[in-house]
Amino acid sequence: MCGIVGYVGSKNAQDVLLSGLAKLEYRGYDSAGIAIYENGEVKISKTVGRLAALESMLADSPLSGKVGIGHTRWATHGKPSDENAHPHAGCASDFAVVHNGIIENYQQLKDRLMVAGHRFVSETDTEIIAHLLEEHWTGELFATVLKVLKEVRGAYALAIMTQRDPGKLVAVRKHSPLVIGLGQGENFCASDIPALLGYTRDVLIMEEGEIALITDAAVECFDLSGRPLEKKVFQVTWDAVAAEKGGFDHYMLKEIHEQPRAVRDTMSGRLSEDGKRVTLPEIKWPDGFVQTWDRIHIVAAGTSYHAGLVGKAVIESLTRIPVDVEIASEYRYRDPILTAHTLVIVISQSGETADTLAALRISKERGVRVLAITNVVGSSVAREADDVIVTWAGPEISVASTKAYTTQLIALYLLALYLGQERGRLGAEFVADFLEDMRELPKRLEEILGSSPWIERTAKDFSVWEDAFFLGRGTDYAVALEGALKYKEISYIHAEAYPAGELKHGTLALVVEGVPVIALVTVDALYEKSVSNIKEVKARGAHVLAISWAGDEEIGKSADRVLYIPRTRAELAPVLLVLPLQLLAYYASVARGNDVDKPRNLAKSVTVE
Ligand code: F6R
After folding, report:
1. Architecture of domain 446-591 in CATH?
2. Is 221 tagged catalytic?
3. 41, 70, 65: which is closest to 163 by C-alpha?
4. Domain 254-432 has CATH 3.40.50.10490
5. DSSP 3-state assignment of 328?
6. Residue 40, burial from CB neighbour count under 10 angstroms (0-12, 13-18, 19+)
7. pLDDT tens digits for 267-300?
């Protein structure tokens, strides 16, 4: 996730772009840059670091012009660096391109362009666009961009300008957000509405596969075959603070709603062209290594640890490699048994958690290969691990982790399938079917988001209690742990997760009349046992919310309330199950008037022991 902004008009473009980027920093902040058309040339100023670094650079050497584009980056391809910062130019430096998204086939295109003599200066996928523009130049920017897009596969929002055809911006949207701002004698484009609010409240929301030609006098929209489109102007009525959260009341809710997109992005670029195999191009194990792992240690903290528990279940089931999941703060002090055949996987949203980093370092000191799953490309964990799978969730601002967890699960599913496929354990058809089901997840997540009002009412009822219990068996238990953590950290209600069969060994004593129990019931093989556990707590007066598959007609006879989630393959249930639990925690926290995004005593990144 990155932020892009563009301007054509009569104002000083540098000021407009910097103010827009300031509103988009929540989308990424590891580097920033702008390009401005100045005295017949496209001039670029960019630097690694937050926007403040770019501002001080421009204070010393300002750019002056009326047309420009800008970018604030959240690295996906290539570490945060001056070279990888956007905008990107081609060999002759007369184009400027800013991009949010992932170009899936960039490596093939880059190889071809290099053979044709193009010189690349960055490690980004974006730079290929600038070189393709040079290759396909028609004498006119808009027509050239249409030609280039025919070659490009993936997700992108782009803003493009060139000194060869000045006074114009071309903006494109495919699977990454982009809006156009309409002014008097000036027009804008941006990844998100807050960047525009200082200038206009009249916007065009670009839809999938749309392209716009923007000048100071007009905005024309087309589909990707160049057919003109009629678009309706949307009047923004939100205030600036609400707009920064995309109209949501809190970042947490916004991030919960971003999960369908985040899941799609995290899969993108990691499958074969026909979508039937996992390719994971970022894994660079030496030849034959994939066969050698005979034990996997997953090490993480908090929510990332909970993702690891689901990872264990899926890796063991798809590969039969034994997996241990360990809490990083314990692992680092317990002299783990590591051999040349152990693969250590560290999971960390921030990539900076001190305990997880220490576990990584200990493993590396012992000569073990470490694979990191992280959301931050330039983080310490990403830099020090041997291999890195980046979760393309985009920056997570709310302290309570939501979209990072879901994308960690996606990364773990892809890894499990990859291991199973490369070790010859999984048939081609099984992998293709599994991936097909994974591609359906964003749609299913959207369906569950539709139940938000029902979940809000339930959360309100539950929020008057000082306790809650989350029950599950198998992977339902792993998700119950995450549900309980979310609940306690933002609602401040005491919440415990239990393997449903374990309650009777002590905790059942805490179940009293009316206490909320959230029972997860998606493991078909253990269905009857889970229902018995529901009856067990019901008999002690608990008020039970069961979450089960759509079509389960029996569960309503045992539970007080039932939330149905759409059917998917059993292994993927955690991705769907966690969403109502996140919403339950969110609405309970709101009902209690808490500071949802900044819960007491907690920090987003725990860089100390
Ligand atoms: C809970 C939460 C924390 C983090 C934990 C690890 O919502 O966010 O439990 O999961 O502090 O952080 P990372 O994943 O950054 O290593």
Report:
1. 3-Layer(aba) Sandwich (3.40)
2. no
3. 41
4. yes
5. helix
6. exposed
7. 998 999 999 999 999 999 999 899 999 999 999 9
Fold identical between 3-244 and 254-432?
A: no
Does 302 contact ligand 1 (Cβ within 6 A)?
Answer: yes
147 counts as catalytic:
no
Structure tokens given for 153: 């596969």
Cα 300 to middle of ligand 1, angstroms: 9
Q: CA distances (Å), 537 to each of 5, 130, 460, 532, 565, in order? A: 55, 63, 21, 9, 22
pTM: predicted TM-score of the whole model, two decimal places: 0.79
- Print burial letters for 576-609: b (CB count within 10 Å at least 16), e (below 16): bbbbbbbbbbbbbbbbbebebbbbeeeeeebeee
513: exposed, middle or buried (C-beta count within 10 Å: 0-12, 13-18, 19+)? exposed
Cα–ligand 1 centroid distance for 263 (angstroms): 19
> What percent of the chain is modeled with pLDDT above 90?
85
Query: Which of 250, 303, 409, 479 most suits a substitution to test ligand 1, by most atoms within 8 Å of the C-beta?
Result: 303
Q: How far is the CA of 261 from the centre of ligand 1 (A)?
A: 21
Reduced to 3 states (helix: H, G, I; strand: E, B; else coil), residue 98 is strand
Which residue from 299, 304, 582, 597 has its CB within 8 A of the most atoms of ligand 1, so it is best to mutate? Answer: 304
Torsion from C-alpha of 269, 274, 277, 280, nearest 10 degrees: -20
Q: Which of 299, 310, 353 to mutate to test the pocket of ligand 1 (most atoms within 8 A of CB)?
A: 353
For 130-186, the pLDDT digits (tens) are 999 999 999 999 999 999 999 999 889 999 999 999 999 999 999 888 999 999 999
From the CA of 604, how far away is ligand 1's center (Å)?
Answer: 7
- Looking at this protein, which amino acid is placed at residue 162? T
With a 6 A CB cut-off, is 489 part of the ligand 1 pocket? yes
Q: What is the CATH number of domain 3-244?
A: 3.60.20.10
**494-499 and 467-472 as β-strands: parallel, antiparallel, unpaired?**
parallel
Q: For the chain, which residues make up each domain, given as ranges?
A: 3-244, 254-432, 446-591
Q: b or e along 542-567 (b: 16 or more beta carbons within 10 Å of the residue's beta carbon)?
A: bbbbbbbbeebeebeebbebbbbbbb
